[in-house]
Design goal:
- This protein is α/β, with parallel strands linked by helices and 292 residues long.
- The chain has one domain: TIM Barrel, CATH 3.20.20.
- The protein contains nine helices and eleven strands.
- Helix 3 packs parallel to helix 4.
- The chain is globular, with a radius of gyration of 18 Å.
- The two termini are 26 Å apart.
Amino acid sequence: MRLSLGPLQYFWPREQVLAFYREAAGWPLDVIYLGETVCSKRRELRTRDWVALAEELAASGKQVVLSTLALLEAESELGALKRLVEDARFMIEANDMAAVQLCRERGRPFVGGPTLNVYNHRTLALLCEDGLQRLVLNVEQGQAQVEALRVAALAEGATLPELEIIAWGRLPLAYSARCFTARAFDIGKDDCGFRCIGHPEGLPLATREGQPALVINGIQVQGHAVCDLGPEIPELRAAGVDVLRLYPQAAGMAEVVAHFRKALEGTEPPARLGAVNGYWRGNAGMAPPPAA
């Protein structure tokens, strides 16, 4: 089982991003995903900057994957996607079907991101024919769904790709053409003023009763709690999961990576640092862990 650092979900200043990944080069990670997946207006780093950073990290021995937008809304975004796919030095994480199509046309192997919505083995088989080599499971796919996917695929003699699961970080629940952060400040999306950059871990959203509920991050909605599947590592291994994805956070990420690396190398499941992902148990995502 390997560790990956998922793509940065938030909008950070350029120097913070570069400093973060230069530090990450020394962390015990196997795979690092780079690129903008949420909003194309976040241009502190452009495509050429992400590629240059990919070269730097690849030189440190990491497998580097370039991630694509989850929601394409403009011709310019499609053009940027084409340029990313045409750079054959790094694998692509395809987060929508346009990216899948471009990879298929060019014979590029790719990782299927968590927004592709792969719910059955026949869809998975079609994507494998297109070049999919690793699938990042949807946030709501739990233990029962993963087992059913594996059993159905093997029953038809299919070979499963690598499976990756979000093991740490706020879960990306939904995307919209509307910018929730801009709306929170009562301004239009086109005049957002890049308000996201002032919220390095998103903008908390509470219920009318004042209870934490969600986090808004531009056009993305996340779960409020930080998911932690560390204690479930034995179950994840048994389910055939190959890669644990850790999403970047603004502070303490080195300690999180070290915690998971130690857990993979040890014999006992680690203590839980974040919140359980209830989806893994077939419950609501924010459901608490079962009683010990």
